[in-house]
Design brief:
With about 140 residues, this protein is α/β, with parallel strands linked by helices. It is built from five helices and five strands; from the N terminus they run E-E-E-H-H-E-H-H-E-H. It is globular and about 45 Å long.
Length: about 140
């Protein structure tokens, strides 16, 4: 089924893609297969603060950062292939990395992304409510042009 709207919540481990149109809601989950870490780390007091796994999940025990999984972002983009308006949300950098991936590799998806907003870890139901409110405001603003 082709939907007009989708919200994507993602971090570097998993994406929740929710498409909806006129009361019909579909959920798809995509998991990253990459758990590789870039070499390096932090030095000094910053190492002590972030040198072990953090609540954000993007630091290794040795202090290295998780690498960007382009294959993961491409799978998310493929799942959004026919969506007209996309809201991207999530904690930390993954949402911005996904948008940058789309700008470089999936320009049609990049054009469909109407917003990138931070969020913690809402339930899927909370995501739908948040997205509907966002799309109503977006559609209203653009219908007045």
């Amino acid at each position: 089924m082709t939907s007009y709207h989708a919200v994507v919540w993602l971090d570097r481990k998993e994406a929740h893609i929710i498409t909806f149109e006129q009361g019909i809601v579909e959920l798809q989950r995509i998991k990253s297969r990459s758990h590789h870490l870039a070499p390096g780390g932090h030095a000094g007091a910053h190492q002590n603060m972030h040198g072990r796994a953090s609540a954000h999940g993007h630091h290794s025990p040795a202090g290295g950062h998780a690498t960007v999984d382009q294959d993961y972002y491409h799978k998310i983009a493929q799942a959004l292939a026919e969506i007209k308006e996309i809201l991207v949300t999530g904690p930390a950098q993954a949402k911005d990395e996904f948008r940058a991936h789309c700008e470089r590799h999936d320009p049609i998806i990049a054009k469909a992304i109407i917003g990138v907003v931070p969020s913690d870890h809402p339930s899927d139901e909370q995501l739908v409510v948040m997205a509907r409110e966002h799309f109503i405001k977006y559609d209203h603003m653009h219908s007045q042009r």
